């Protein structure tokens, strides 16, 4: 029994002395419960909206304030004309536009019927449905509060809901860009990091380094097959999305493939960086799963709207590369946007590539020395 107790004590000491094991056992569950607790929510707050007020009377201004004071919406801008509406959606500035008809107050008080149009960006079907329900509910409460002060009978506010880019609210319109980002990240980053770490673990990397090949040629040779595999995966996802699930490709297919290739290179550079840090395949796999899978699913906007998240997590989502790639794919596929609307996200992806390549070169030189 004493030997058994000594053995158990030794195992406890072994765990406590290993910082990586303590990180897995203690820190990871705490991080996961915090992320899941804050991210998984059906309530949306501070969603960006635009207002197209064709009436500009006191009643429309009061209705606007009622919407904004609810906490669900945040005003991005007032639109001057309907021509600005689609541009705002393509730039991904707003999730919904509320349009008040001309003479809104006159129609409400005299004709007993006034019309409001709710135009939502339905490229994210769940968010569009939730926001339109919120706005309809608030306008209904606004109508009832004013009906109590009208002596000659009740007036009605008709809300017409219009879904841009996804009229049937098909969830697959959102899942195809997200799945593409996740698969490209897994195939490129995880497999590259494991492949290079395997070479180091078994000692074959030293053999390659003393061969006539230069280090950058070794790295390019290792990642080239994954570029082709990622391209094949991209084409297969797009083909199945188009032919099986009828997800449109409204923008340029060439631009879409260029962005997918750019994201693949980014994922490969991230995989190379992980391989320079990881000591063996298990560590590389753990780092890839924890650093890539969970953020891609939870913090990229793939499943849960970023507007739901508290401010710290929204800031963290800015350094999650799949977030920007998903935005690009949605803009090109669903909104028909060109490079004029995705240049910012493209530059961000390029910046990530420069960052990870620079870190990998620095880390690799340190290891060689």
Question: Which features does this protein show?
Answer:
369 residues; alpha/beta; abc type-2 transporter like fold; five-stranded mixed β-sheet; 14 helices; 10% strand; elongated; disordered C terminus
Separation of the first and last Cα atoms: 50 Å
Gross morphology? elongated
Question: Average pLDDT across residues?
Answer: 80
Domain module tally: 2
Q: How do the helices and strands follow one another from N- to C-terminus?
A: HHEHEHEHEHEHHHHHHHH
Number of strands: 5
Class per helix and strand makeup: alpha/beta
Strand order, main sheet: write it out: 2-1-3-4-5
Tally of helical runs: 14
Low-pLDDT residue spans: 365-369
How much helicity do the residues have? 55-70%
GO cellular component, one term: plasma membrane
Protein name: ABC transporter permease
Transmembrane segments: 21-40, 172-196, 223-245, 251-274, 286-306, 341-361
Organism: Plebeiibacterium sediminum
Description:
This protein has helices spanning 2-17, 19-39, 58-68, 83-90, 104-111, 125-147, 172-201, 204-209, 215-243, 253-277, 281-298, 311-317, 321-335, 339-368; strands spanning 47-53, 73-78, 96-100, 113-121, 156-164. The chain is an alpha/beta fold. The chain has a five-stranded mixed sheet with strand order 2-1-3-4-5, with helices on both faces. α7 (172-201) runs antiparallel to α13 and α10 (253-277) runs parallel beside α14 (339-368).
Summarize it.
The chain is built from 14 helices and 5 strands. The protein is an alpha/beta fold.
What are the SSEs and their pairings?
Elements lengths: L1 H16 L1 H21 L7 E7 L4 H11 L4 E6 L4 H8 L5 E5 L3 H8 L1 E9 L3 H23 L8 E9 L7 H30 L2 H6 L5 H29 L9 H25 L3 H18 L12 H7 L3 H15 L3 H30 L1
Parallel strand pairs: 1-2, 1-3, 4-5
Antiparallel strand pairs: 3-4
Helix pairs in contact: 7-9, 7-10, 7-11, 7-13, 9-10, 10-13, 10-14, 13-14
């Amino acid at each position: 029994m004493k030997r058994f107790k000594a053995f158990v004590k030794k195992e406890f000491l072994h765990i406590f002395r290993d910082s990586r094991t303590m990180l897995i056992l203690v820190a990871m569950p705490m991080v996961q419960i915090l992320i899941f607790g804050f991210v998984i929510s059906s309530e949306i707050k501070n969603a960006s909206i635009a207002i197209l007020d064709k009436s500009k009377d006191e009643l429309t201004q009061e209705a606007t304030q009622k919407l904004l004071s609810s906490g669900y919406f945040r005003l991005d801008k007032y639109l001057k004309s309907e021509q600005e509406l689609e541009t705002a959606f393509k730039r991904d500035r707003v999730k919904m536009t509320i349009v008040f008809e001309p003479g809104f107050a006159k129609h409400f008080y005299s004709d007993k019927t006034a019309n409001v149009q709710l135009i939502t960006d339905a490229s994210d079907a769940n968010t569009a449905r939730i926001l339109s329900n919120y706005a309809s509910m608030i306008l209904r409460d606004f109508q009832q509060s004013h009906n109590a002060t009208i002596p000659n009978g009740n007036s009605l506010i008709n809300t017409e809901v219009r879904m841009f880019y996804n009229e049937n609210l098909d969830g697959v319109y959102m899942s195809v860009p997200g799945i593409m980002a996740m698969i490209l990240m897994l195939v490129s980053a995880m497999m590259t990091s494991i492949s290079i770490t395997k070479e180091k673990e078994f000692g074959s990397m030293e053999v390659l380094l003393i061969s006539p090949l230069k280090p950058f040629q070794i790295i390019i040779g290792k990642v080239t097959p994954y570029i082709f595999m990622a391209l094949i995966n991209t084409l297969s996802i797009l083909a199945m999305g188009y032919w099986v699930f009828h997800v449109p490709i409204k923008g340029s297919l060439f631009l879409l493939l260029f962005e997918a290739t750019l994201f693949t290179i980014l994922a490969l550079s991230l995989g190379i960086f992980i391989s320079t840090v990881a000591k063996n395949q298990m560590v590389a796999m753990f780092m890839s799963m924890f650093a890539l899978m969970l953020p891609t699913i939870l913090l990229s906007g793939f499943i849960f709207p970023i507007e739901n998240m508290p401010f710290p997590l929204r800031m963290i989502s800015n350094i999650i590369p799949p977030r920007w790639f998903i935005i690009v794919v949605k803009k090109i596929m669903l909104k028909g946007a060109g490079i004029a609307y995705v240049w910012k996200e493209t530059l961000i992806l390029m910046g990530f590539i420069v960052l990870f390549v620079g870190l990998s070169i620095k880390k690799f030189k340190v290891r060689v020395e």
